[in-house]
UniProtKB/TrEMBL annotation, chain A:
SUPFAM superfamilies: ALDH-like. This is Aldehyde dehydrogenase. The active site is at E208, C243. The lineage of its organism: Eukaryota, Viridiplantae, Streptophyta, Embryophyta, Tracheophyta. The chain crosses the membrane at residues 446-465. Belongs to the aldehyde dehydrogenase family. GO terms for molecular function: aldehyde dehydrogenase (NAD+) activity. GO terms for cellular component: cytoplasm. It comes from the Eukaryota.
TrEMBL record, chain B:
Residues 31-233, 258-405 form the Aldehyde dehydrogenase domain. One of its GO terms (molecular function) is aldehyde dehydrogenase (NAD+) activity. Keywords: Oxidoreductase. Belongs to the aldehyde dehydrogenase family. Signal peptide: none annotated. It comes from Dichanthelium oligosanthes. The keyword Repeat does not apply. This is Aldehyde dehydrogenase. PANTHER family: ALDEHYDE DEHYDROGENASE. GO terms for biological process: aldehyde metabolic process. SUPFAM superfamilies: ALDH-like (SSF53720). GO terms for cellular component: cytoplasm.
Amino acid sequence: MAEETVRELRASFAAGRTRPAEWRAAQLKALVRMIEEKEADITAALHDDLAKPQMESYLHEISLAKSSCKFALNGLKNWMKPEKVPAAITTFPSSAQIVPEPLGVVLIISAWNYPFLLSIDPVIGAIAAGNAVVLKPSEIAPATSSLFAKLLPEYVDNTCIKVVEGGVSETTALLEQRWDKIFYTGSGTVGRIVLAAAAKYLTPVALELGGKCPVIVDSNVDLHVAVKRIAVGKWGCNNGQACISPDYIITTKSFAPELVKITISIMTNEFLAQSQKLNFQYLIHEINLWQLDSLKRVLERFYGKDPLESADLSRIVNSKHFQRLTELIEEKKVAEKIVYGGQTDEKRLKIAPTILMDVPQDTALMTGEIFGPILPIVTVISSRLPNAQLTNPYLPFGGVGDSGMGCYHGKFSFDCFSHKKGVLIRGFGGEATARYPPYTPEKQKILRGLINGSFFALILALLGFPREKR
Amino acid sequence: MGSVSAPEEMALGFGGLVGDLTEVYESGRTRDLEWRLSQLRGLVRLLEEKEEDIFDVLREDLGKHRGESFRDEVGVLKKSVVDKLQNLKNWAAPEKATQAHTPLVAFPATALVVPEPLGVVLIFSCWNLPLGLALEPLSGALAAGNAVVVKPSELAPSTSAFLAANLPKYLDAKAVKVVEGGAEVGEKLMEHRWDKVLFTGSSRVGSLIMTKAAKHLTPVALELGSKCPCIVDWLDSNRDSQSTLKRFFTKPEYMARILNEKHFKRLSDLLADKRVAASVVHGGHFNPKTLSVEPTLLLNPPLDSDIMTEEIFGPLLPIITVKKIEDSIRFLKSKPKPLAIYAFTRNEKLKSRIIEETSSGSVTFNDAIVQYGLDSIPFGGVGHSGFGQYHGKYSFDMFSHKKAVLKRSFLIEFMFRYPPWDDSKIGMLRRVYRFDYISLFFALIGLRR
């Protein structure tokens, strides 16, 4: 089945279907329409899969997917244009350019935490670059996966863009085929499997993996603002289940207690519940609260006194991950370091925002990527420090080292799925006999001059020195 | 010292080597711009002061004439390193990403792309351009601020020994190491994690390297072989190819010899096929004593013969004829993607079709090989011919990570980013993402929902 799929896509690609700018633009426009027309269905699927609050679905998946599509539509003509570059004096006269071309048939394997965005975003890049695509959505987010399987054929050209659903065995079957590029988002463990499978065919690979993203909090910052931004980054993004979620905090010993106090307060403050009525008053409130906030306060303000009941908190994706996360905080050395939260609800797969202080480094919590609503704070004696990241289409998004290889977003997505072909065009004039054997000493002198960029040598070469018998 | 005794280090599995280099890298030594410039200057001095020695070792390993060695290795390298010296400051500087597209939720912010070195990198070079294929990537890796291990090909032993003896003298021996040896050494090196590996060589070994790299998630670039086709649309009847060949290679010393007996046999076996032998129209003389093979032209050998399916890598040139020149495009599309496509033609339409309808590492019209010396276009394969590009700034990029940095100030907070969520906040966000600020303003002061 995987073989047939690839064969069909190769035939479509070879026939040139995916190359014209009009085809690429048509697919991207269709995707924009799909996102607009089916927003409710997408939000529902994300809620099914992750109990994702509607706001998060809009903010982090739907709106970003739409703007990514529109950005590609706007940039398409320019990105496809060959880039003229300087040619060298040694090949004078000549012109050189870099021509982007599609790689061919690409495989995109996406993840479960942002199942909509992490599927659509690379697909946008692949289509913009003129490739045929197979999307394999994560089986751990089944509602979103079947939504793709149902919707994509309704909107895009399904002789060139296909969805293949399934788990380990279907993915393995796909990885046994030859692809022109594989784009994988997920864990390092599976990333290695993907890379090893690609090695058989020498297929280039992009891996967007996880990592423990630290947040360094210096003491001379605007604490309330910092804390809100950290809190929404950690718990307002899929409840900590994002590759770029702050994994843990590093701050000084003296500063840590205040940080925690404010965070808790933000999470439970009841003022806000009352002032929803008039937005302007809401704004004034913000200004007052600025003086009082820190992590605890922020958390209370966001999620109320009983966060497990808050509709604004996503759940953990499945029981396997729920198990993994509860085990991380049940370890005795860890449990005694909890300063806030720790409540869990196995039936609804919810874990409350949990803050810990100075968990020993040799625990599972402090070594693996957490990928959940648990935030350890590591205190250091003194510090001197910098900053963090988001989605600007002019910035490349991607990891390095264990967090992966390759980058995308914006034009980087287009580049990820393109080959930049160098093209050198020469005329038949400008024959430099110095290039050719026999390699006499005179020729070598002129060649040296040419390579060193000497204008005089160029003139001599152009005039046909050294002269040769025909 | 810079050159490692292979048996000792091998016995230890190269853990010491990798550990030492990691320590050097973490000390920050290689990131300093001055250090990088000094390494590049060291390379230039090496190429200038040791030029005669280089000509000697290339002649020993490959029988290359100094003219060819200068034109294709020493000269090109020097030009390339000087280019890096002139441009490094610019390449290493952070680049501002355009502000226009930052949505209000992240305003105000400064967005930068900061190139940073990858860390400790490994370069495998090949025997055919044993100096160039080691030093060009080395210059890129150093320019990018990495610590480097170079593993030259054991099949060009004089060049390998030259690099082992001289790189430590002209470069920072603590941060640049040469490891000599054969396949076992390569395997042992690949047991470790590297921040990047560049391999130039055959697809078979490339696949082994990539498989080993997968265990550590080591990013890899592969410069592999291929059959580079040359489309010839016309021939100037005043100069035919045979007299050109005679003119170039009258004295045998102008032609490099075949690398070794194994490759000599491989090439003579290509003509063992009777049908192929029958298609020879010029040359065909093999001298096993001097390992030299005459420039040989063949006309229409069978397409299923080894000479037409495997990369020749030798002085045999088959000519395949087609009815009309455009048929060559279909012919090419049925073959694996090559490293380079050459086409000699004045037909503009054909040129466009070749660019658009075929895929290859690069395309050169009305010349051959010279694209290798150009610093402004990327050099590298696609599909079967590999992935990853270098030369010029691309060498710098190959060994860099472009880190995105977003700086925000603490001023200006928009509450609609944060929970608790409600419809009015979603409405505000919708306006923000549409960059509809007037509507947003009204919503904020309560005049709109």
